[in-house]
Amino acid sequence: MAKEVILQKQEAVNQVVEKIKKAKTIISFDYQGLTVASFMQLRRNLLKSGCEICVIKNNISRRAATEAGYNGFAESLVGPKAICFSYEDEVAPAKELFNFAKENTQVKVASGVVAGKEMGFDQLEILSTLPSYETLLTQLAAGMLGTLTQLSIGLNMLTEKEEA
Q1: 102 and 42 in one domain?
Q2: Beta-bridge mates of residue 85
Q3: What's the CA gap between 164 and 154, in Å, rounded?
């Protein structure tokens, strides 16, 4: 019987390791004191952003994080924690969690892993203030378009000056 339990736990660790390796962003946060309705609302909000929330036993999540090579993240998994996995966007979970935490003080972001780099609370908070990928592309395009527009106006002025 004990071997079966050990095998079940190892299988659970392997499943979490797979989630960690597949995810672009992993964030652990405190949720204790949050109502079921609020937790479900947070889950729905994150699901819209392509994220998944799991409440995993700390022993299993610590072992999985260590196996995946994130020892610092594993050390932060103390007390009741939920883990958010994002498979699509690297910034979305941080934005959503920090926005949700503004209205629900029970949610406290602890630490995370973004694009393979371990991050603490402060780094995740800075990440949450960044504009989305689409917004950054729009800003880049607008900046480039503005420069090209000014260049074409300047060249046009030079040709008109030479003609006159």
Answers
A1: yes
A2: 26, 52
A3: 16
